Amino acid sequence: MADKPIFTVPDPENSIEVPGAQAYAAACDHVVFLETSMRQSEDDTFLGILQRIRIGEITDEDEQLLSSRNAENLSKEELEEFSREVTYLFGENFLAERYNYFRLERLGNPIVKIVSKDSRYTPVGFEHKLRLAVDAKCALTMNLYVEVS
Q: Residue 68: helix, strand or coil by DSSP?
């Protein structure tokens, strides 16, 4: 906390900064660019707040509005709606899987596990199983094995 960002060029004289930068470089082999502005694209007030935060010019009004949306100031219904609609980003697949399973359980419907019958073509990192429940949101984003489907 309160230190330089780990991706800054390290000071060779500082024995702590060099290993931190090396660890960051070793762990990050690619960059992800989020190119589409989602929610704020429809809300000029929020978009303005984000733009001012980006350049360090947040106003008292901005701070007051953001504070009013603090979780402790929201109703149970607002919190539930937010948790259903928000996009989560996870640093590791197991965290996403754990959260997805939690959301399936909250539906209160039986959860089925669909196991792959043809596992000859399974890309690295993909599971041979899929868990679903009635009323669960899911999307097929790509068919990886079009030759047999």
A: helix
**Whole-angstrom distance, CA of residue 126 vs CA of residue 56:** 41
Give me the residues paired with residue 133 across strands: 111
The neighbouring-strand residues paired with 131 are 113
Q: Are 47 and 54 in contact (CB under 8 A)?
A: no
For residue 105 the two structure tokens come to 């359980």
pTM for the model stands at 0.43
pLDDT over 90, % of the chain = 11
Cβ-Cβ contacts under 8 Å for 30 (sequence gap 6 or more): none
Instruction: Give pLDDT tens digits for 75-117.
Output: 889 888 887 777 777 888 888 889 889 989 989 999 998 876 6
Q: Which residues pair with 115 in a beta bridge?
A: 129
- Nearest partner of 71 among 61, 80, 59, 63, judged by Cα: 80
- Residues 101 and 127 sit within 8 Å (Cβ to Cβ): no
Q: Which residues neighbour 104 within 8 Å (Cβ) at sequence distance 6 or greater?
A: 111, 131, 132, 133, 136
> Could you give the CA distance from residue 81 to residue 66 in angstroms, rounded to a whole number?
18
Assigned token pair, 147: 């030759």
